[in-house]
User: What shape does this take?
Amino acid sequence: MSQSQLEQMRAEHPASSPLSIHDMTVAYQRKPVLWDIDYDAPAGKLVAIVGPNGAGKSTLIKAALDLVPRISGMVLMFGQPYGKERQRIAYVPQRGSVDWDFPVSARQVVEMGLYRKIGWFRPVTKKYKQQALEALDRVGLVDYADRQISQLSGGQQQRVFLARALVQDADLYLMDEPFIGVDAATERAIVDLLRELRSAGKTALVVHHDLQTVTEYFDEVMLLNMRIVAAGAVEEVFTEDNLRATYGGKLALLEQVGHRMKLSEMGE
Amino acid sequence: MTGVSRSMSFFKTILFLLVVIAIFSPSDLLAQETRSVSDRLIRTLSLQDYNTRIVLMGTCLLGISGGVVGTFMLLRKRSLVGDVVGHASLPGIGIAYLVMESIEPGSGKSLPGLLTGAFVSGLCGALCTLAIKHYTRIKDDAALAIVLSIFFGVGVALFTIVQRMSTGNAAGLHQFVFGKTSSLLANDVKLFAGLAVLVILVTVFLFKEMTILSFDQEFAHAQGWPVLLLDSLLMGLIVLVTVIGLQSVGLLLVVALPVIPAAAARFWTDSLRTMSWISAAIGGVSAIAGVILSATFPLLSTGPMIVLSGSLLFTISMLFGTQRGVITRLRRLRISRIRHGRLDLLRACYEHLEQNLPEGMMLHSDQMTDRMLTLNSLLSRRTWKPARVQSLLNRAIRDDLLIRQGEAGYQLTAEGATKAVRAARNHRMWELFLIRYAEIAPSHVDRDADMIEHVLSPEVLEELETALGQQYPHLRVPDSPHAI
Assistant: This one.
């Protein structure tokens, strides 16, 4: 990102925003799945990202974190390109994205959230182990600290992931479907935790699939289906019309164009 | 003491010992004259031959480095890449030989040169698989097979050329295909040992980084770790282990060096650190065993012996591994079957004693101990065979849950009675839970509860208690929601 682009983007987006996405288009395996995303996350709010399957919810988060290449567009976090403010951002990937048969304990997974702080080559010292235990305590799993992760239930595994994000003590949390396939106790624990984060002034963007609970759990919502249909306060944006626009079948054309772009990119 | 420095000091000790052995034992001029098998075995074990000593030290380090890298190779699901690297190193050896011969005839068999060739073309092979996967629609397994066979084919073709043109001194090149440890020279071994130590040190220093790379690459990336660099580094380590293993084990078998110890180690532990220790140990031990075997029986070449020793340790681990070994799992299964049987028996006892009770009365555990039970009375409680009930009864007597009264009578002990109440209560709580919250018909819940009560964990029981416990306080057993 050149300096002039950066200046221009800063002029167009509020400096206070923990996450500003400017005109971002993202392709996944050469097929565009997000078009012209322009968004400023409000500071200190809980934001739900909602949309049908294949709407690009996870991709949005991954592209913001540079995990998926962007075709165009820019992302600023706390007014800086991502690399500079990394330690202020915590990412909670989907639970299904890792192999839970891996030979580590719950505590060791949480410690991974601290690896960056610990730095190259250095071992995990007692101080950090203690921090990991405290984070596990916050999600109610301190008794499970030494269990191998495959012995945990799905909900407990999700909470381990949350603890790994908590231990980073970040200001912006990006969570990919933390509520999927979890038990009621875990759902309550996550909600409590989100509220705790909010009252500490943190911001969370959460990919969410359950429309029933959006109003109850979140302050803001982004309705997404390959582009942003609407974004803003839940009571203003989370309307029947907007939901219909998000979940309705009107985007067949966009999907079709995306598919054609993929084929032409692949030389077919 | 930190983990890394502890590991470091351990490796230092091993290195030191090996160096001491190499330096201080008397040099031996009669190396080739031994006769009987036992003689040779003694010579090998007592490290009398300078050559054996050197080979043992080098291969042992090689085995350890293979085991250490193998752990991450296995967990990063790169096992087959190791096989590709092995096969792909062949053209590199051929090209390196040809290049060196053309520059200076006679220098073609310089080991550092050949190994550099092997390293470069092995790495190329590994990168080709990644590139094919990334840029085409060909899937992983096909990409591996394609690269492996193309490189190996090119290598074989090159070797034919080398053999036609050379004046006979290229014959030694074939040892890279099948491995020939006894041909190792002291200088070669020093090179191998140095590389193996390098591999071990890099892995030990980057243990944490390799862990996060193998477990959750995306998270590592989001945290700002240079994932591509780390991944390349791991790939480089895999290639290095493969290349230094080539001459001892041969490129066809070299993949076994890292993969077998790591896979064997996984059976013993759920901890990554322990796993890499065990893997290193298995790698080192099988290397030593292989060298000793082939030094004792000169007809057996070292490479296959190392792999076979590793396979033996793998088989033992697979059967007896304390975490995931087959026998361990069978034993756990048996223990849980016994537990299930005991629960069934105790509940049958409770239900039998309960049936003679007046309506609304509750059976207390202290009333249960002085009532009689018989085999027949329990037999009617469930569909089970007399032999099964009898064996459950016998086991319960051994476990002090029942005592025998007279010829065919049994009585619960105090402990047995308490446990029987527990079993019945858990069963019925679960039935009620199913009826109330899962809306399953009362006539169906018995079977479901039967299956599930065996796996109820303390946490689930706690949840049951919060859902239903207030209605049935003080261990009260709810009435059965269906006819028994």
